[in-house]
Design brief:
It is a single chain. By secondary structure, the chain is of the alpha/beta class. It is built from 11 helices and 13 strands. Helix 6 packs across helix 8 and helix 8 packs across helix 11. The longest helix is centred in the first third of the chain and has 22 residues. The two termini are about 25 Å apart.
């Protein structure tokens, strides 16, 4: 049995989609659906059972089946969440309990960390376990993720478990994420409704408007990188999951307009004051470590990823698996 927490969410449901493509259906999905449309991500997937995340953690030691691996994608991923206690319980404590459970039973544990742990990037983007102490996340979400990374390093767990620092992931199955959706999805709706895209102006003289840079990674690549650690159980530690090449917001939006066969129309608007002091101007994953560990899949270019997303999913209003 493979357990996927957050299995109805964006990356989690995409992981299950790919597991299905590989012929695996003996999967327990753990999540909390609430009032969202996450349930739609589940419809085309094949799995053994579904369990609420609270019931699962309460009954963790009573599971009556053999567990091959726990792929822990579940978390509150809102970078604007202000309830620090909630994030510590949901993101840190939950991860700690699962990790201890797996280590005690020699079960493969793969979990989602985040590039948000890197903060403003001034400490670099190198995926070494020992740098976690020096990182300064810009929001409580990033801190909750980094806190678990520090715990895993201090306890020596990285000899057995694998953590993945996802950068800016975009792609199908993110429809339910509201304001946490990728800019690709938001910009697609803006073009559909208004014919133009709004991007933030730059408040940093080193970057022109729209030239702020991010490492955009297509969800299908993020999934392949995740499942690399399921297939290669001896590979442990913490690893970046990104394209390895920073691109501008203008690049992303221009790729979107091109996929829609439209002339680019971009309006630059003021950066909201409430996020100005936490805004990242540059992120870029160093993916040498995962490549050196044996990952050899070619990373999808921004242009190809956006085109696939737009033409095969957004324009057809489809989820992965349909």
């Amino acid at each position: 049995m493979i357990i996927v927490t957050g299995g109805a969410g964006f990356i989690g449901s995409a992981v299950i989609w790919q597991l299905n493509n590989l012929g695996k259906t003996d999967i327990l999905i753990v999540d909390e659906l609430g009032m969202t449309d996450k349930w739609k991500n589940l419809v085309p997937l094949k799995f053994y059972d579904f369990m609420n995340k609270l019931i699962f953690i309460e009954n963790l030691n009573k599971m009556g089946f053999k567990i091959e691996a726990i792929i822990h994608m579940g978390a509150n991923s809102s970078t604007t969440e202000r309830n620090a206690d909630h994030l510590l319980v949901n993101n840190y404590e939950y991860s700690r309990k699962l990790a201890e459970f797996c280590i005690q039973r020699d079960i493969r544990f793969i979990y989602a960390s985040s590039a948000a742990t890197y903060g403003d990037g001034s400490k670099g983007f190198e995926d070494r376990e020992d740098v976690s102490y020096s990182l300064r996340p810009l929001n409580m979400y990033g801190y909750s993720k980094n806190l678990f990374d520090i715990k895993a390093y201090r306890e020596g767990w990285f000899n057995k478990i694998a953590g993945i620092k996802y950068f800016n992931v975009y792609g199908p199955n993110e429809y339910h994420k509201g304001n946490m959706r990728s800019v690709v999805h938001k910009a697609f709706e803006q073009i559909r409704d208004t014919g133009k895209v709004r991007l933030f102006k730059s408040m940093n003289p080193k970057y022109n408007d729209g030239e702020q840079m991010r490492d955009f990674v297509y969800v299908k690549d993020a999934v392949n990188m995740t499942l690399f650690f399921l297939e290669n159980k001896r590979v442990s530690g913490i690893f970046n999951a990104g394209s390895g090449k920073a691109r501008t917001w203008n690049d992303l939006v221009n790729a979107l307009f091109k996929a829609l066969n439209r002339k680019p129309v971009i309006e630059y608007v003021e950066l909201p004051a409430e996020i100005a002091d936490r805004y990242q101007y540059f992120t870029e994953a160093n993916i040498d470590r995962i490549k050196n560990a044996g990952y050899s899949e070619e990373v999808t270019s921004l242009e190809n990823g956006v085109t696939d997303y737009v033409k095969n999913y957004l324009l057809k209003d489809l989820y992965l698996g349909y």
